[in-house]
């Protein structure tokens, strides 16, 4: 499967401009022309599917101020320990550091200010309704790109993340829109369950991380990047979501770009390639500009889609060949 032009996937919305996974960030991404908008999904204590990147609340909300006595023994505040009514009391801010030396400081210092916290944590259903409304009012057909976050961890806590997401997609009418919804996960068994047991009609993307990250999965990501591993992925998924360093390996001493064989190997097995994450303010080593990064991934590597915090810049680049 090869798209004629790479799709632009707004990573956590237009998160380069507004706090991630807020409805404001998603509305901005929609207005900027992103083809797909990402939703990371976790569950509340009462099983509500909420849009939040982490299983914890403390990096992006004021939960420690609202519920100071609700941290677990590791000092973290877990979304699954709060019901939806309590989560609605929280306010979302720009992602901040949690370590002692930088506690409360924004991770990306030139983005939206870390304070004040102006936004709320949306449910998946609320976000879908908003995006569908914008599609109608703007005459668009914007896609959802849903990630199941830590499904095995949720299962150990007694909740079924896959079932909750399937229910929302059925209720909103998106379960049978394969042209408009991707499902992605780091865990291969979860995707296999969706494909074979739940008979998902939607395209699946196998996210590929680094084995050192400690993702909530027993999958060997090094193996998944091999020919045999990619053939295995092709048995249940339509594409892969690799980390940019899995494709761009750096530059030679003479300054030539060194690319891996991953894109070619994936394409030979009919797999799409949607790497993450393109950030103007966090360029890979050896890359001098966002334009150069886009040129390498689009024109040299030939990827099929791009996760980016700055969807407007990528949309402009694809339209004009330059950054406006």
Q: Would you spell out the secondary-structure blueprint of this structure?
A:
Elements: E1 7-10, H1 23-31, E2 36-43, E3 49-51, H2 63-66, H3 84-87, H4 124-138, E4 143-148, H5 151-156, H6 161-172, E5 181-185, H7 188-197, E6 204-208, H8 221-224, H9 227-233, E7 239-242, E8 248-251, E9 257-259, H10 262-268, E10 272-273, H11 290-301, E11 305-308, H12 311-320
Parallel strand pairs: 1-2, 1-11, 2-4, 4-5, 5-6, 6-7, 7-10
Antiparallel strand pairs: 2-3, 8-9
Summarize the structure.
With 324 residues, the chain is α/β, with parallel strands linked by helices. 31% of the residues lie in helices and 15% in strands.
Q: Look at the structure and give the CATH class.
A: Alpha Beta
Q: Main β-sheet: number of strands, strand sense, barrel status?
A: 9 strands, mixed
The domain tally reads 1
From the N-terminal CA to the C-terminal CA, the straight-line distance is 30 Å
β-strand percent reads 5-15%
Can you describe this structure?
The chain has 324 residues and is α/β, with parallel strands linked by helices. It has one domain: TIM Barrel. It is 31% helix and 15% strand. Helix 1 runs parallel beside helix 4 and helix 4 packs parallel to helix 6.
């Amino acid at each position: 499967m090869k798209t004629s032009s790479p799709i632009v996937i707004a990573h956590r919305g237009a998160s380069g401009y507004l706090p991630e996974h807020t409805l404001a960030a998603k509305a901005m991404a929609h207005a900027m022309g992103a083809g797909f908008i990402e939703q990371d999904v976790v569950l509340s204590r009462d099983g509500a599917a909420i849009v939040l990147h982490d299983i914890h609340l403390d990096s992006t909300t004021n939960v420690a101020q609202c519920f100071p006595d609700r941290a677990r023994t590791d000092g973290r505040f877990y979304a699954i320990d709060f019901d939806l009514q309590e989560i609605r009391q929280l306010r979302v801010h720009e992602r901040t550091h949690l370590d002692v030396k930088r506690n409360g400081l924004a991770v990306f210092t030139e983005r939206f200010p870390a304070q004040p916290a102006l936004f709320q944590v949306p449910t998946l259903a609320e976000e879908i309704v908003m995006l569908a409304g914008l599609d109608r009012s703007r005459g668009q057909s914007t896609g959802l790109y849903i990630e199941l976050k830590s499904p095995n961890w949720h299962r150990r806590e007694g909740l079924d993340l896959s079932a909750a997401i399937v229910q929302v997609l059925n209720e909103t009418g998106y379960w049978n829109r394969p042209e408009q919804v991707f499902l992605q996960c780091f865990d291969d068994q979860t995707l296999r369950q969706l494909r074979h047991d739940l008979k998902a009609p939607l395209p699946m993307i196998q996210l590929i991380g680094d084995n050192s990250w400690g993702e909530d999965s027993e999958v060997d990501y090094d193996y998944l990047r091999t020919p045999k591993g990619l053939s295995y992925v092709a048995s249940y998924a339509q594409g892969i979501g690799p980390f940019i360093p899995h494709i761009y390996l750096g530059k030679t001493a003479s300054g030539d770009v060194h690319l891996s064989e991953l894109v070619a190997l994936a394409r030979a097995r009919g797999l799409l390639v949607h790497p993450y994450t393109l950030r103007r303010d966090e360029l890979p080593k050896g890359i001098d500009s966002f334009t150069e990064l886009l040129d390498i991934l689009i024109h040299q590597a030939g990827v099929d889609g791009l996760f980016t915090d700055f969807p407007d810049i990528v949309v402009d680049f694809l339209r004009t060949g330059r950054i406006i």
